[in-house]
Design goal:
The chain has about 70 residues and is α+β, with helices and mostly antiparallel strands. About 25% of the residues lie in helices and about 40% in strands. Strands 1, 2, 3, 4 and 5 form a 5-stranded antiparallel β-sheet that branches. The longest helix has 18 residues.
Length: about 70
């Protein structure tokens, strides 16, 4: 298992200091999608630049999950 960190980013990042263990990048990405869904349900009208950035234990960016769709 590897540790992944889920930073919230909207300009200045809010760092995830504890992280969570997952078996693969894919499992961590699926978790980021679940986190994004939870944020959308709690605050349906959030900032369009807010995203979750998934980092592995070496600090490599694995994925960026946009929380709110960009306005047209």
């Amino acid at each position: 298992m590897r540790t992944y960190y889920f930073d919230m980013k909207d300009g200045v990042p809010v760092r995830d200091k504890s992280g969570q263990e997952f078996v693969s990048d894919g499992a961590a990405i699926a978790h980021s999608k679940s986190l994004a869904d939870k944020v959308r349900r709690k605050n349906p009208k959030g900032h369009p630049e807010l995203r979750i950035v998934v980092l592995d234990e070496s600090g490599r960016e694995v994925h960026r999950e946009q929380i709110y769709p960009k306005e047209a």
